[in-house]
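Students often ask why we bother predicting the structure of a whole assembly rather than each chain alone. The short answer is interfaces. A chain on its own may look different once its partners are present, and contacts between molecules only exist in the joint model. In this exercise we take two input lines together and write out one structure for the complete complex. Read the inputs first and try to guess which parts will touch.
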Amino acid sequence: MDLLVVLSFEALKAVASLALISVGLAIIFGMMRVINLAHGEFLMLGGYAAIVATKAGINIWIATLLVSPLVVGVIGVVIERTIIRFLYGRPRDTMLATWGLSLLLVGLATTIFGNTTEGISAPAGSLQIGDYRIAAYSLIIIVIAIAVFAAIWAVFRFTRYGLIARSTMQNADMAAALGVNPSRVYAVTFGVGAGLAGLAGGVMAPITGIVPTIGAAYVAKAFITVIGGGPAILAGTVSASVMFGAIDQIITYLSTPVIGEVALLAAAVVLLRFMPQGITGRFFRRAA
Amino acid sequence: MIINSSVNRRSFLKTTATAAASLGLIGAGGRAFAQEDTIKIASLLDLSGGLDAAGKPMQDAITFAVEEINQAGGLLGKQISLITYDTQTDMRLYPQYSQQAALKDKVSAVFGGITSASREVMRPVLRRLNTLYFYNTQYEGGVCDRNIFCTGITPAQKQSKHVPYAMNKWGKKIYTLAADYNYGQITAAWTRKYCTENGGQIVGEDFFPLDVTNFGSTIQKIQEAKPDFLYLVLVGGAHQSFYRQWAAAGMNKQIPMASTTMTIGGEQMVLSPEETNGILLCFNYFEALETPANKAFLERFHKRFGADYPYVTELAMATYQSVYLWAEGVKRAGTAERMPVIEALESGISLDLPSGKFSIDPQTHHCVMDINIGQIQDRKINILESFSQQQPLDTSGVCDLKKNPDDNSMYVIKV
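Now the answer. The structure tokens for the assembled complex follow.
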């Protein structure tokens, strides 16, 4: 019984981690249609921001939950203003540009921080469940993921910015005719997506440690999750995270981490074969 | 494809023959120059990438050994010049730099390679190019090749002491976590052998590629199996997160750990004391060794690299000592040429070095050395027990270079 609780808890943590690392991409790619191959590097920058801030004596919670998203969000706005805004509607060029950007960011991080694994210890101690002990930090990841998704949903559903952003993504010309400045909306939305990636990077840093090349481990999973999720970005990301995270974790428990990853990828292939539009292309079509 | 490639191969052979001939000419000139000037050696170590934590102290050690020998007047009246290649934890760079060191720099000996995988990439290249090779990492044993000298500690020296010691201390049920390549797999097999021979039981065994960072479900599996202690053969920066996650789950206070690799990258300085306290180690060298040779070494070393130098690791000491073994071979041979040096090293060289008496076993080209069990406490390592002059029995069981000097194998020893 305890084991079942602990295992479901681990699976839930895997789901939450997957949802967190994908949510920034869900906005940038799912909503803005920008194929951002530098998404993994945004996470990496978030991780470094958290580590540098923590080592500079800032409280670890402030570092991961505030510094990381703010730093990467600002970097995101700068990148949108200098590179991405010239490339809307040109997916192939965007892909090349963001790929180049990803290489550049890896190179810069290597120059500044060195090609070494850096890490911080996870805060918050451990919990006892029956005979088992788990890291309390896992619970915190789950809570953060839920909070982030609730916040995004509320912002896009209930605020004026949310309404404007959604309408601009649907029809920029129409929004402009109604007095909205689409260029600003794009910049802000890209910044929000980047900031969420930074937050995920900061939150994951105590678990995985950070190297300049860690983005490669994230970017494929994030894309698979967002594409597997389909057109409704929030419901899609959540449902795909649940499916892939649970499969990964259960198979990892039954065999090894390698087979777990293989199972995740295999599940994604099968899913897209039968539902090319992703999960929300078939189910929950009216979800956000 | 095959037809094409054979045509290409012919023209390729032609060009390489020409290239080799011209290289030979340049080489002849270079060597004549070198005879008056310096003796060159090369180090091929990962100074960046996932293994840099292990590689950097090794590079400091080889630099220090070369500087010391040079300050003492050099070798055969010549200075040693050290050529450094950073292999960047990238398997493709090992053969490339090995070739460069042998063909372009024409070094007398190459020191380096960290993982067993990298050694098995370098070894055939250096053997083919007749360049002496020193491999200075603890490894799984079984290399049998007259061109290589292995100064690292092997399972018959290490696990044979480490595993029973931990079992006496903590109990008979072991859970092994190991890196998923030859070193991890073979070391896990040796652990199983010494565990069952001593009446113990392996209750779990998991292998991880070097880039795995999430150990969450493994930690649950371990708790389910309820071992008396963990035997860890984890390698590199990514695997460090195991110690963090283990402590974050509070398990560091429940199940003790023995590790074959902890501290070789100075991990005890990076991780917090709570995450590493109590880990049981087994190596040839610890800084805490109370010998006059070691105390003098540490004093000189800290003068050169600063009093706050993190830790002289096992691999760094093996690297440092391998340079002295090679230098002794060169002195006895009266030349830095490969064959005379190999023969001199096979004549039974034994030196008093910081880690104690250190001798080359001519039959296997491995080393006979002291073994120490240590335990981490607040970033320091206390020595608990010492075993004098251990033979590389694993390798000597399969390898006899006196009888078969042409042997060129990596024996996977049946355990």
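Check your guess against this: DSSP finds twelve helices and two strands in chain A.
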